[in-house]
Write a structure and sequence with these properties.
Number of strands: 3
Number of helices: 13
Number of domains: 1
Structural class: mainly alpha
Distance between the termini: 26 Å
Largest sheet: 3 strands, antiparallel
Helix content: 55-70%
Radius of gyration: 22 Å
Shape: globular
Strand content: under 5%
Strand order of the largest sheet: 1-2-3
Length: 387
C-alpha cells in the first residue's frame, strides 16, 4: 500500500527547469557587469556617476524577476482566453507613441511614458509577447486548415499589421522584422509542409539581392534614404567611415583588438566615446574586446544552452498551445541574438537590435523575463513521468 502511494505521488510530481532559470540569471548578471563596464565612462561624463546605467538596469532586472515569478505561477492556459484582446490592444498601443505620452529619444519616437512611475514602455516589446500568445492560440484553433495555402497566408497576414505599424509608426524596422520572424517560425514549426517556406525563403533572398543591385547603381547614393545609406555602408564601411559606417568600423576595431583572450574586463578603449551607446546594441563588441574570442564563444554557448533547454520544454509540453508558446519565445530570442551578432560583425546592415538579457534597456528585459515566465509556466505543467 505504501509503495503504491509512493508511485502515485511520483507520477503526479511536476518538472521545474532549474537549468533554464540558472542560464537566464547568469546572462542577466553578466549583462549587469558588461553594462557597467561599457557605460561607466559615458555615464560619468553625462550624469556625473559611473553607475547611472547600471542602477537603472538593475531596477529593470529586479522588476523583470518579479514579473517572471508571477507569470511562472499562473497556468499558461489562463492567457488563452485573452489572446485576441491582447492582439488588438498591442496594435492600438503602438499608435500611442503619436500621442503626448510618446517619448523622443536618440532621434526616434518609440516609447510611451508611464505617468507617475518614471518608466518608458516600448510598444514593440509588448507586440512581440502578444503575437506569440495570439498565434499559438490561432494555430490551435485552425487545426488542419493550417496545411492549406489559404490558412498559411491568413496566419502570416495576421502578423503583418503589427510589423508594418512598428516599422512605420515607431520607425523601428528591426523590431518589425523580429515580429514577422517570430510568426514565420511558429507557423513553420506547426506546419507539416516545408516546401512553402522554402519558396518564401527563395523569394526573400531574391528580393534582398534585387534591392542591393538597385542601390549600388551609379547615381543612386544621392537618392537613398538613411536605410539605403546603411546598406551601402554595410557593403563598404570604409567609404562611409565618417557617417553611417562609423559605428560598424569602431565595433570591428573592438572585436579585432580583443584577440583570443581579450584586453581584460574594464580595459576596452572603444567604449571611450568611439562606439556610440556602447552599452546598447554594440555591447557584444565590448565583450569581444575585453574578454576576447573566448568570452564571445562562451556567451554564444550560453544562448545555445538556453535555446536547447527551451526545446526540451517544447517537446514535452502538455499541449500544442504550450509548445507553441515556447517555440515563439525560442524564436524571439534566437532571431534577436543572431541579428545582433550579425550587425556587430557587419554580416548584415546596421540596425538597432539589442542583445537579449545583456544589452541596456528596461522594456526589453522586462518583457523578455515575462516570456521566460511563460516558458517556466509551461515547464511546470510537465509531469516527470513524461520526461
Amino acid at each position: 500500500m505504501a509503495d503504491r502511494k509512493r508511485r502515485k505521488k511520483e507520477q503526479t510530481e511536476y518538472f521545474f527547469d532549474y537549468s533554464l532559470l540558472f542560464i537566464v540569471l547568469f546572462l542577466m548578471a553578466f549583462g549587469l557587469v558588461m553594462i557597467y563596464s561599457a557605460s561607466s565612462y559615458e555615464a560619468y561624463q553625462d550624469f556625473g556617476s559611473t553607475s547611472y546605467y547600471l542602477r537603472k538596469q538593475l531596477i529593470a532586472d529586479i522588476l523583470g524577476l518579479v514579473v517572471m515569478i508571477v507569470m511562472a505561477n499562473i497556468p499558461y492556459k489562463f492567457w488563452q482566453r485573452f489572446t485576441t484582446i491582447a492582439y488588438f490592444a498591442s496594435f492600438a498601443l503602438i499608435f500611442m507613441v503619436l500621442t503626448p505620452l510618446g517619448v523622443d529619444s536618440h532621434g526616434a519616437r518609440r516609447w510611451i511614458r508611464i505617468p507617475g512611475i518614471g518608466f518608458n514602455l516600448q510598444p514593440a516589446e509588448v507586440a512581440k509577447v502578444c503575437m506569440i500568445l495570439f498565434l499559438a492560440n490561432m494555430v490551435c484553433k485552425m487545426g488542419k486548415s493550417l496545411r492549406t495555402p489559404k490558412g498559411l497566408i491568413v496566419l502570416i497576414a495576421m502578423a503583418v499589421p503589427h510589423s508594418v505599424a512598428v516599422w512605420q509608426v515607431t520607425d523601428n524596422l528591426s523590431s518589425a522584422i523580429i515580429i514577422l520572424g517570430i510568426a514565420v517560425l511558429m507557423i513553420f514549426v506547426a506546419s507539416p509542409d516545408y516546401k512553402k517556406f522554402v519558396i518564401l525563403g527563395v523569394i526573400a533572398v531574391a528580393a534582398v539581392i534585387g534591392i542591393l543591385v538597385v542601390i549600388t547603381q551609379p547615381g543612386m547614393a544621392e537618392k537613398l534614404s538613411f536605410r539605403g545609406e546603411r546598406m551601402l555602408a554595410w557593403l563598404n564601411p570604409e567609404a562611409y567611415a565618417q557617417g553611417k559606417g562609423f559605428q560598424t568600423l569602431q565595433a570591428l576595431y573592438a572585436i579585432g583588438s580583443g584577440g583570443i583572450w581579450g584586453k581584460g574586463l574594464g580595459q576596452s578603449m572603444q567604449k571611450l566615446d568611439f562606439i556610440p551607446e556602447a552599452q546598447n546594441d554594440m555591447i557584444f563588441s565590448i565583450i569581444c574586446e575585453e574578454l576576447g574570442l573566448f568570452g564571445a564563444i562562451a556567451i554564444i554557448l550560453m544562448f545555445i544552452m538556453l535555446l536547447w533547454r527551451m526545446m526540451i520544454v517544447a517537446n514535452n509540453a502538455m499541449d500544442l498551445f504550450g509548445a507553441l508558446i515556447v517555440v515563439g519565445v525560442m524564436g524571439h530570442i534566437a532571431i534577436q541574438v543572431i541579428l545582433n551578432i550579425a550587425v556587430v560583425t557587419n554580416t548584415i546592415p546596421n540596425t538597432g537590435i539589442s542583445l537579449p538579457f545583456i544589452s541596456y534597456g528596461g522594456s526589453s528585459v522586462l518583457f523578455l523575463m515575462m516570456e521566460i515566465g511563460l516558458v517556466l509556466s509551461v515547464a511546470r505543467r510537465i509531469q516527470l513521468k513524461d520526461l
